[in-house]
């Protein structure tokens, strides 16, 4: 059953390391990252928003495509836009450069999230994963104040009192290697992703075996 939560895909990065190419359209195993994420979200959420500074590129997707409300780009501005347009009490945020996000991990994050006015964020030995996390609609004014002041560090926005951490132990039960958090920042990451495709079961990549 779909969750009464808004699924938000952040697809508005500068992508300077990919010659300006939008990473959402990187093709892996016969599909783009955004195509896979969109299909994944359709099975999980009853509302989807794609946040981007190039709305025309995403006109083919049957969901709300929203441009950042602030002119400068950052993860926090994308979260702000998602919170602004969401009609649900919470949003789940995911970046468009994470090709191996698992549905089971998203469901784990949703189930473990705390119904507060802050954020529920996966915590691993590498640190917090704020772009695979749940944010409360109630936090919109808080986020907006920090963006307006150019205070863009997500952890500082919410602080310890407003962040509910989801343990690595719980996450590894459904994603032992934590591949859901693998993201493509550089060309070398794309090369690694192509090698990883062969090792990940077909159903996890959204294709038929």
Question: Please, could you describe this protein's structure?
Answer:
It contains seven helices and ten strands. By secondary structure, the chain is an alpha/beta fold. It has one domain: Spore Coat Polysaccharide Biosynthesis Protein SpsA, Chain A (Alpha-Beta Complex). Strands 1, 4, 5, 6, 7, 8, 9 and 10 form an eight-stranded mixed sheet that branches. A two-stranded antiparallel ribbon has the order 2-3. The model has no long low-confidence stretch (mean pLDDT 90).
Give the percentage of residues in beta strands: 15-25%
What integer value in Å does the Rg equal? 16 Å
Distance between the termini: 24 Å
Overall pLDDT metric? 90
> What is the approximate shape?
globular
Named CATH architecture: Alpha-Beta Complex
- Kindly report the oligomeric state of this protein: single chain
Number of DSSP strands? 10
Low-confidence stretches: none
Q: Output the CATH class name.
A: Alpha Beta
Tell me the CATH superfamily: Spore Coat Polysaccharide Biosynthesis Protein SpsA, Chain A
Q: What's the number of domains?
A: 1
* Element string (H = helix, E = strand): EEEHEEHEHEEEHHEHH
Question: The biggest beta sheet, please?
Answer: 8 strands, mixed
Helicity, in percent?
Answer: 25-40%
What is the count of DSSP helices, taking H or I runs of 4+ residues?
7
CATH topology: Spore Coat Polysaccharide Biosynthesis Protein SpsA, Chain A
Structural class: alpha/beta
């Amino acid at each position: 059953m779909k969750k009464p939560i808004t699924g938000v895909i952040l697809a508005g990065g500068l992508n300077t390391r990919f010659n300006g190419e939008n990473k959402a359209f990187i093709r892996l195993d016969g599909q783009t990252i955004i195509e896979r994420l969109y299909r994944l979200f359709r099975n999980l959420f009853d509302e989807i928003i794609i946040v981007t500074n190039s709305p025309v590129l995403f006109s083919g997707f049957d969901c709300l495509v929203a441009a950042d409300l602030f002119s400068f780009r950052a993860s926090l501005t994308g979260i702000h836009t998602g919170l602004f347009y969401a009609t649900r009490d919470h949003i789940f945020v995911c970046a468009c450069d994470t090709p191996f996000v698992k549905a089971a991990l998203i469901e784990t994050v949703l189930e473990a999230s705390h119904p507060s006015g802050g954020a529920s964020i996966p915590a691993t030995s590498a640190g917090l994963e704020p772009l695979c996390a749940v944010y409360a609609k109630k936090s919109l004014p808080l986020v907006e104040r920090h963006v307006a002041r150019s205070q863009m560090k997500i952890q500082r926005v919410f602080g310890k009192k407003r962040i509910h951490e989801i343990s690595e132990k719980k996450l590894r039960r459904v994603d032992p290697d934590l591949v859901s958090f693998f993201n493509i920042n550089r060309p070398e990451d794309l090369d690694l992703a192509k090698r990883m495709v062969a090792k990940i079961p077909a159903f996890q990549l959204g294709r038929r075996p």
